[in-house]
Write a structure and sequence with these properties.
31% of the residues lie in helices and 23% in strands. The protein is α/β, with parallel strands linked by helices. The chain has an 8-stranded mixed β-sheet with strand order 6-7-8-3-9-10-12-11, with helices on both faces. A 4-stranded antiparallel β-sheet has the order 2-1-4-5, with helices on one face. Strand 7, helix 6 and strand 8 form a beta-alpha-beta unit. Bound molecules: adenosine-5'-triphosphate (ATP) and magnesium ion.
């Protein structure tokens, strides 16, 4: 296998709150190979955004408490700020959650993209800059004239494309996309995802896609990590997770899709996720788990490989029975 573009190992992130530390991400590990797509799914508050914000050094009130993250072999957690700023966007770019509302309303698109070039020392003459921005916008399916517009003159789908353009502007080796289509209607979502997929494939970058939508993940990613209460509870090739989930939570997510297993019936997952203000004892999912045993309350399951399949791991004491 080619060396991963990103290798995250044992990452833990805590937020300082008035009630004490909130353990938002606990012992998360994953790798992304060049040209591959990793999805991270999980319900609201499961730590998806925190994970990518930590990688991008964009946490507010939060800190990496443990773990390592290597981008193209370089340890990110140890990098001095100046060196980190040089690789942000250039080697690793984020389409943040709610990206389109983070566009500056008083600047034309050309100025916003231009600032990104300036910040990273990309010098162009005036005509050359216009051409570069026009061609960048063309890569995400937008006309060159979009650079003369303000964000409010663009539709949601167009704004999201601008955000994707900004993420690929400097040719990063890794793209992190945090719910890049969640605010868009279904048709536009499909088009924007197709664009993201195309630019990712064209550039050969690795991609981490965050989302809630299992159906979208099924079509879009190669590998999937399922997050619950700040942990990855199952991960592996996306087809394996859909065909033979080994964690009850993954199984419930898969079963909740109308087109899988139970046609037409949507079943929510009863119960709420645990508070992150205390260390969780046992399996974090046990209070909601239909298969929980006494042992699940006290003994935290670790990620274990499935016997038959490379790279498919689940943290469940009853993994073998879930798949059955
Ligand atoms: N600045 C903060 N201070 C304290 N706690 C925070 C802060 N930001 C996030 N959290 C908490 O950390 C946990 C993980 O949040 P995060 O935003 O990473 O979840 P998420 O999986 O991205 O959710 P969503 O699907 O809603 O975007 C949540 O419990 C959240 O309340
Ligand atoms: Mg989020």
């Amino acid at each position: 296998m080619t060396a991963p573009v990103l290798q995250v190992a044992g990452l833990s992130v805590e937020y300082g709150t008035r009630a004490g530390p909130a353990f938002a991400v606990t012992d998360v590990s994953f790798a992304v190979a060049p040209g591959r797509r990793l999805g991270l799914v999980g319900e609201s508050g499961s730590g998806k955004s925190t994970t990518v914000l930590a990688l991008m050094r964009l946490l507010r009130q939060g800190r990496i408490a443990a773990g390592s993250a290597r981008l193209e072999g370089r340890e990110l957690t140890a990098l001095p700020d100046a060196a980190f700023r040089a690789i942000r966007f250039a080697r690793m770019a984020l389409v943040p959650q709610g990206a389109m509302s983070s566009l500056n309303p008083v600047l034309r698109i050309a100025e916003q993209i231009g600032d990104l070039y300036e910040d990273h020392g990309v010098r162009h003459g005036r005509a050359e800059r216009r051409a570069a921005i026009g061609s960048l916008l063309g890569r995400v399916g937008l006309g060159a004239e979009v650079q003369d517009r303000f964000p409010h003159q663009l539709s949601g789908g167009m704004k999201q494309r601008v955000c994707i353009a900004m993420a690929i502007a400097l040719g990063p080796a890794l793209i992190l996309a945090d719910e890049p289509t969640s605010a868009l209607d279904v048709m536009v979502q499909k088009q924007v995802m197709a664009t993201l997929g195309r630019v990712q494939a064209d550039t050969g970058a690795g991609l981490v896609l965050i989302g809630h939508d299992m159906a979208l993940m099924a079509h879009f990613v190669d590998d999937l990590g399922v997050m619950y209460a700040g942990r990855i509870v199952e991960k592996g090739p996306v087809r394996r997770l859909f065909a033979a989930p080994r964690h009850p939570y993954t199984r419930m997510l898969v079963d909740s899709l109308p087109s899988f297993r139970l046609r037409g019936v949507f079943r929510g997952i009863p119960g709420v996720a645990p508070t992150l203000l205390a260390r969780i004892e046992g399996c974090p999912f046990h209070p909601r788990c239909p298969m929980a045993l006494a042992r699940c309350r006290t003994e935290a399951p670790v990620l274990r490989p499935a016997l038959d399949e490379g790279g498919h791991v689940a943290a469940c004491h009853r993994a073998e029975e879930v798949a059955a």
